[in-house]
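Morning. Coffee machine broken again, so started the prediction first thing and wrote up yesterday's gels while waiting. Chain of 348 residues, entered below exactly as on the submission form.
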Amino acid sequence: MTLLDRLRAGSTSPLNDELMRSAADDLEAGGIVATVFDGLGGLPPAAVPELRFVAAVHRLVLSRHAPRLALLYPSVGGVLNRAQLWPAAAEALGENTTQVRRWMAETGVQTNEVGRCGPLWGGLQVAAQRCGKLPVRLLEVGASAGLNLRPDRIGLVVGGRVRGQTDSGLVLDPGWTGLPSVDLERPLRISHRAACDLQPVDVSTTDGREHLASFVWADDLARWERLRAAMTLAQAEPVAVQPLSAADFLGAELAHAHLGELTVVWHSVVWQYVSAAERERARAVLAAAATRASIHAPLALLTYEPVRAEPGASQAYRFELRLRVWPTGSGTELLGVGAGHGSPFHWG
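Came back before lunch.
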């Protein structure tokens, strides 16, 4: 699929859909978008250049470089007018071409969607309760800003009431059908949190917050509220995300078994951005660690990743929550299936 095709594919976000399709027309006509992408069109599909583009435009709004365009962005209090969007966006691109090109070239797509902590929270409960009452060493690969490293600090609305930490400033409505077959009243105990990302984001800085926020759809205000709450929580309880590859990070964290703790490696909607060679390296590290696992120092892999859907399905991909536990598990288990942002989610 060419860059033009990727832009023309549009988005389920009305704002991004209008922006991408108008940008495709402008690119074909040799307008400002052609200048923006000059020399960047060779970005591989895995770099998702069209998402880098819409994020860079959004970041102009967030950083107050595009006041006219801001009037059309709900994320900063504006009201979307599709007819006015492209003229304002083209003007902003023309005035800030160098800045937009720098953001697109230097910053990868961040997938640290807070809503995914809903199914991950449930999966972590399943893993923890299968391994008794052991506290959890939580290791996240591709963590971006590490916003999903505090599942024990959030609340979830399940069955009409809040489970988890009921007084949390971050409460998710995970949209569950069915339930995991565990006691949802049991509190999660996390003894250690660590994470890696090749381009970690520091949300204690304005630059970091703007970068992360730029990848959230400007017209999805529910996601915006989740993001704000998660960034506030992250600033209150900081965890440094290490600038390491998956294999190097796991090699250090899994070098020794940790008696009296359940070590959980998790990742969500990140594996597609990892090269095939790096995935193999990380799998080898995990396989070696699995041989050292015991009932006194178990290891689990919990993932929420996209899988191509069956032909004729309404969506091209479905997102599967999968769990494997060593040494007690017999293989990888499918716990449930959900949407890309974590909600809705079906257990079983």
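The radius of gyration is 21 Å. Going to sketch it on the whiteboard this afternoon.
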